[in-house]
Specification:
alpha+beta, Elongation Factor Tu (Ef-tu), domain 3, OB fold (Dihydrolipoamide Acetyltransferase, E2P), 4 helices, 21 strands, rod-shaped
Length: about 400
């Protein structure tokens, strides 16, 4: 029996090594993948949206009449009581008069005073005529009694007395009108006379309720019209949260649903409860320029006020509204699921290889999904599988 020489043995070993190296180099290496463990627990479906706080009851104090409002001395954050003066409304100042207009006003006053003097003289003359007519009537009546005068003369005296009385009454009316004209002319000049020294009457605008000044809508002294907003008053200790959600999500939200309020700036999340889902929706343009139908959800703060003392009106928050709870559910990341046709699938790691598994998904929410069939607790699934992941391909979980 022949034996191999040492040189042949060495040659065979070299060839075998080369074949092994080449085979190993072309052998597919395991793919590094992200994995997650299927867990059993309570699955909570939420509607996640951002929102803002809002004072539950706010009052806009407005000017009740036109005029010039004084400067509001209050500042945002100041507390007021019901009845405290917010501002005062003064009569609007008259426009400036040029020299010609002022001269005309002065001449108008002079003419009014002259008319007044003429009216006084007319009254005096009418009074004198009436007195004379009264004496003539008395004399004619006395003569008629003596048989010296006639009835016709008495009648003419009575007529003259009646006419004189009416003329005096008309003269008095003219006197009153002349006095009124003089007063108007004086008042016109007084409006432009800075040396008048008589302060105008003012109307005080008071706070309807007690609370804090949320914001100043009109701080400086200016001319206002009736209904011009001046300040907003409310109680920042009584806040609610307004969250606008998609109308398709709003139909799942019920009164009393629990809400977790996060990213509000405090050290821990706050708790709230849904008070109402407004029945009227509205159209909103998303950041991508898409029209969306949305509805407002009003949430009451449940956490003690001491935990959110620093929250104010119109502050930004994130809300997670819990709409569904599934007990004893199999929970996996939503990123581990993908569709093939109408079915949901995932890749399960079995003995170092990727195994395609069909699953039944109950609900997805917040990056997690509840699976009712197709998986077991403790199994490893591949999260966000790439295009290189195929059934029976070797994989290695990323550490």
């Amino acid at each position: 029996m022949s034996t191999l020489s040492p040189s042949r043995i060495v040659y065979a070993l070299i060839v075998a090594s080369i074949i092994g190296v080449v085979t190993w180099s072309f052998w597919p290496s395991p793919i590094l993948v992200e994995t997650a463990t299927v867990e059993r627990g309570t699955f909570i479906a939420t509607v996640d949206e951002d929102g803002k706080t809002r004072v539950r009851e706010r009052y806009v104090v407005a000017s009740p009449l036109a005029g010039r409002t004084t400067r509001v001395e209050l500042e945002a954050g100041d507390r007021v009581k019901a009845g405290d003066v917010i501002a005062s409304i003064l009569p609007s100042p008259a426009p400036f008069l040029d020299p010609r207009a002022r001269r005309e006003a002065e001449e108008r006053l002079g003419a009014a005073e002259a008319a007044l003097d003429r009216a006084k003289a007319t009254v005096e003359r009418a009074s004198a005529v009436l007195e004379q007519a009264d004496r003539d009537l008395e004399r004619d009546r006395e003569l008629l009694k003596r048989g010296v005068s006639t009835v016709k003369a008495v009648e003419q005296s009575e007529l003259a007395h009646h006419v004189a009385d009416r003329e005096r009454s008309a003269a008095k009316f003219q006197l009153e009108a002349a006095q009124h004209t003089v007063e108007q002319a004086k008042a016109l000049l007084a409006l432009y006379d800075r040396s008048a020294g008589t302060p105008p009457e003012s109307f005080e605008v008071t706070a309807p309720v007690g609370g804090e000044i949320i914001r100043l809508l009109q701080e400086s002294e200016t001319i206002v019209e009736p209904g011009t907003p001046l300040v907003e008053i409310g109680d920042c200790c009584d806040l609610e949260v307004v969250v606008d959600v998609l109308s398709t999500d709003a139909v799942e939200i019920d009164k009393g649903d629990r809400v977790v309020i996060e990213n509000w700036g405090g050290p821990k999340p706050l708790e709230g409860r849904v008070r109402v889902v407004e029945p009227g929706g509205f159209t909103k343009i998303s950041t991508l320029g898409v029209e969306e139908q949305r509805a407002n959800v009003i949430i009451d703060m449940v956490s003690p006020h001491e935990e959110w003392l620093d929250l104010g009106d119109a502050y930004q928050i994130d809300a997670r509204i819990e709409v569904l709870t599934i007990d004893d559910a199999l929970i996996v990341p939503s990123g581990a699921l993908f569709r093939q046709g109408a079915a949901w699938n995932t890749y399960v790691i079995d003995d170092g290889r990727a195994v395609l598994r069909s699953v039944d998904v109950q609900r997805r929410s917040g990056g997690l999904a509840a699976v009712s069939a197709g998986l077991k607790p403790g199994e490893q699934v591949i999260v966000y599988p790439s295009d290189s992941i195929e059934p029976d391909v070797r994989v290695v979980p990323r550490q």
